[in-house]
């Protein structure tokens, strides 16, 4: 039977852990509410800029008959070089949140390499960076601190190099991967072709449009809007990923708190059994001593 002091020490240690995990859950819950608001605001803007860019591209392509159209809008089914931009957290203690993204990146790498496509990795987040560095996988770009405190300017600065390489023809495709927020209890892995731009979900209302395109300014307008589109989608992905991270950490800490409680209950039962056994042993010794004196 375990020593009473050892069991008591274990109970105290687990209770301290329980307090820590409970506090971390509350902190993640508060942060989640804040980032959710930012995510909802960013989502509305992202949808609108996608629709506007879709309509302008549609009009310009009709004017030019798809001639001299920016490569950002020309679908490429046989890319030779692909940039994979992926987002992970800077911190752990959030269950399988980071590993889900890493597994998807690994799967995409194998898929592209099987087709003879050259892959370049651009990582935002310490956990993803540490994993691929440990695996001796070269990272073309890496940044720490962005995913834990994302801003529009920082996001735009991070994605700028990938955008310029695509624009200049150094790459043929840019894929964005991150674990996004679905609801309070689950996350959803997002794999998005950032460049070339796809407008499968955009709604174009030709009859009610107020847009008026000047042919002389079309390419300049498209370049500017494309950059805004890429920058803001990067920012939205960072915000959405941060919401998902807080959600995952909140769940992980809630599970840890429940497990700690179960462990305390189990140790308490063990402590009571040990104490009862000790009392019984003492009574037997006392009775044996009394009998020996008779």
From TrEMBL:
GO cellular component: a single term: proton-transporting ATP synthase complex
Major place of residence: membrane
Q: Which residues form a coiled coil?
A: 250-277
Q: Does the keyword Lipoprotein apply?
A: no
> Recorded E.C. number(s)?
3.6.3.14
Q: Which GO terms describe its molecular function?
A: hydrolase activity; proton-transporting ATP synthase activity, rotational mechanism
Task: List the InterPro entries hit by this protein, alphabetically.
Answer: ATP_synth_F1_ATPase_gsu (IPR035968), ATP_synth_F1_gsu (IPR000131)
Q: Which Pfam families match?
A: ATP-synt
Give the way it sits in the membrane: Peripheral membrane protein
Which UniProt keyword terms apply here?
ATP synthesis, CF(1), Coiled coil, Hydrogen ion transport, Hydrolase, Ion transport, Membrane, Transport
Q: Where is this protein found? A: Membrane
Q: Which family does it belong to?
A: Belongs to the ATPase gamma chain family.
Described function: Produces ATP from ADP in the presence of a proton gradient across the membrane. The gamma chain is believed to be important in regulating ATPase activity and the flow of protons through the CF(0) complex.
HAMAP family named in the record: ATP_synth_gamma_bact (MF_00815)
**Know the name of this protein?**
ATP synthase gamma chain
């Amino acid at each position: 039977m375990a020593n009473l002091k050892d069991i008591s020490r274990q109970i105290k240690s687990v209770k301290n852990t329980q307090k820590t995990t409970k506090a971390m859950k509350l902190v993640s819950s508060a942060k989640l509410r804040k980032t959710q608001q930012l995510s909802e605001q960013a989502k509305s803007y992202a949808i609108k800029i996608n629709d506007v860019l879709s309509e302008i591209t549609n009009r310009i392509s009709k004017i030019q008959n798809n001639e001299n159209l920016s490569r950002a809008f020309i679908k490429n089914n046989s890319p030779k070089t692909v940039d994979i931009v992926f987002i992970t957290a800077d911190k752990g203690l959030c269950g399988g949140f980071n590993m889900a993204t890493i597994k998807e990146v690994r799967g995409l790498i194998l898929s592209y390499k099987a087709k003879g496509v050259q892959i370049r990795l651009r990582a935002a987040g310490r956990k993803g960076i540490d994993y691929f560095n440990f695996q001796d996988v070269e990272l073309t770009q890496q940044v720490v601190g962005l995913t834990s405190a994302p801003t529009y300017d920082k996001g735009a600065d991070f994605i700028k190099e990938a955008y310029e390489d695509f624009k200049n023809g150094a790459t043929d495709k840019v894929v964005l991967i991150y674990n996004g927020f679905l609801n309070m209890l689950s996350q959803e892995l997002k794999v998005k072709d950032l460049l070339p731009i796809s407008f499968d979900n955009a709604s174009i209302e030709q009859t009610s449009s107020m847009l008026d395109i000047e042919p002389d300014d079309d390419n300049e307008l498209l370049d500017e809007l494309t950059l805004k589109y890429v920058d803001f989608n990067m920012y939205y992905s960072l915000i959405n990923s941060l919401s998902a991270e807080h959600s995952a950490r909140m769940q992980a800490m809630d599970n840890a708190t429940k497990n700690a409680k179960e462990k305390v209950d189990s140790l308490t039962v063990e402590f009571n059994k040990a104490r009862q056994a000790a009392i019984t042993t003492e009574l037997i010794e006392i009775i044996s001593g009394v009998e020996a004196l008779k």
